[in-house]
Amino acid sequence: MNLPNKITVFRFCCIPFLWLFSLWQFRYHWVAALLVYFIACVSDTVDGNIARKRKLVTDFGKLMDPLSDKALVLAAFLIQINLGIRTDIVIMIMMAREFLVAGMRMAATVEGEVIAANVFGKAKTFIQMATTGMTFLLLAIMEKDGEIIIATNGFNPPQWLTVYCTIAFWIAGIVTALSGIKYTLDGWKHIKTK
Predict the structure, then answer these.
(1) If you ran DSSP here, which 8-state letter would residue 153 be given?
(2) Which domain does 181 fall in, by range?
């Protein structure tokens, strides 16, 4: 397994720690969650740059890199839903898109092709990571300022945070839906009717 693929696997490994630091209530646990999330998000750029620069692009990377991004971002959104900072329909749109694109990729794999992430998918991932990352940052700042130490099980988010998350989640949801439509149009040729 080459270095970019190891970094992709590392991103999967960050998810349990993100959950642990988000849900285990200790002082500055949101700061710890933010650091884990930031490192995981940066690793997405790092593995892609290394793969392209060193010509280490593999089918494993084309398939697993987007999956690791999806798993990381959906974990972040689910953590925030658990806090009560949520727009449920947006999460449903995102999950539907991810399953649709995963299905397209599986159909392509059966035909011996791999559908790599396109510019719309990359934009979607960036906006999702930025949205969830900013929410973790705001939680970490609130915690550091003493506004919240324990932020789960009954946490009542401030109105401004709920408004921010609602707007940001909807922007991410719209971009996600548009990228799903683009993947569907591009991958439709892989769907065979008998």
Answers:
(1) S
(2) 3-190
The total number of structural domains in the chain stands at: 1
Share of the chain above pLDDT 70, in %: 88
CATH of the domain at 180: 1.20.120
pTM over 0.70: yes
Taken in order 78, 79, 82, 85, the sign of the CA dihedral is negative
Please determine, for residue 149, whether its predicted confidence score (pLDDT) is greater than 60. Answer: no
Tokens of 104: 């397209």
Torsion of CA 118, 6, 74, 140, to 10 degrees: -120
Count of CB atoms situated within 10 Å of the CB of 72 = 25
- Is the pLDDT score of 40 beyond 90? yes
Question: Locate tokens 């009560």: which residue?
Answer: 84
Chain-centroid distance, C-alpha 156 = 24
Written as six digits, the tokens of 52 are 């392209």
